[in-house]
Amino acid sequence: MNKNLFELRECALKEIENARKPSEIAQLKSKYLGKKSKISEVMSSLKNLPIEERRETGKLCNAIKKQIAEALKTKSEQILSESSFDIDITMPINKERGSLSPITIVGNEVCDILQKMGFAIVSGPEIEDEYHNFDALNIPASHPARDMQDTYWLGSNKLLRTHTSPCQVRAMERYGAPLRIAAPGRCFRNEDIDACHENTFFQLEGMCIDKNISIPNLIYVMRTILSEIFAQDVQVRLRPGYFPFVEPGFELDIKCLICGGEGCPTCKGSGWLELCPCGMVHPNVLRISNIDPDEYSGFAFGVGLTRLAMMKYHINDIRVFNTCNLEELDQFGIV
Ligand SMILES: [Zn+2]
User: Fold this and answer.
1) DSSP percent split of the chain into helix, strand, coil, nearest 5
2) How far apart are CA 106 and CA 309, in angstroms?
3) Which residues, by Cβ under 5 Å, contact ligand 1, an ion?
4) I need a labelling partner for 234 at 20 to 30 A (CA). Which of 37, 91, 97, 104 fits?
5) Measured in angstroms, how far is the CA atom of residue 129 from the centroid of ligand 1?
6) What residue segments make up the domains of the chain, in order of their start?
7) What DSSP character marks residue 156?
8) What pLDDT, in 10s, does the model give residues 172-198?
9) Residue 335 Cα, ligand 1 centroid: separation in angstroms?
10) 41 C-alpha to center of ligand 1: Å?
11) How much is the pLDDT for 197?
């Protein structure tokens, strides 16, 4: 039996030495080390041998397997190092190139505009804790506003953030006042999905805290962002809105860019489109993060980047963003 094994080894090493292609190496690997190889056959018949012979033959089989495996590896590396590729630089390039997502494009644009106005770009974790997502934003456990946001709870007071507002809290904790930050990012809500709603969407949080900050500062910043994004002078208006972390709170509307304010199906005939919640930072929110509301005031806003991208590129179904279907995105001339 052992004589056969030695012969087998010689034969294998010779064949490996003569191999010239990676495909031959693969074939030899299967022939000498695969499940149906001679060595595997011998090893599975070991149990029928007397104990002494079993031990000796088993040891030999393992040693030979190791030698063959090493020879295969060495030869394979040698073949790869000797192979050369013919490169034809006149070959046409693959025209199907990728591009940034429309949400990323719009997000980058907003960040650029805000950076020019002195805002720093910050980020925060997508898995948040209850304190940063709710408590520090003036939304304690008993507050009815918690029910306004259908939350994915992860246990141990962890959750998928429902908005980018926790980034405000983390920035105030870290940098104090005065402060100007913008935080783009992904948010999650446990919502039924339709043409206007997604359980995963992108927001951009903006916050400015300084002495004597007031509502006109907020309006100026929002108008500047939107006019640059849409490359035209846009009109905005504020309507009272309730959000626990701002006081007063507003809904910011933008004059419909499709009909110019005349009224159309997109703006449901009103001439205005609801764009983002905003307002003056609630004194409680400042106080929780150790900023004195008697000395400082500020504004905050949360722009829906997904909605902004839909308006800019005239995408009427929010679901296309997460389909990963290039044909769907191609129709908007983005990809
Ligand atoms: Zn309209």
Assistant:
1) 45, 20, 35
2) 6
3) 256, 258-259, 264, 266-267
4) 104
5) 40
6) 2-82, 102-330
7) T
8) 999 998 999 999 999 999 887 777 677
9) 27
10) 78
11) 73
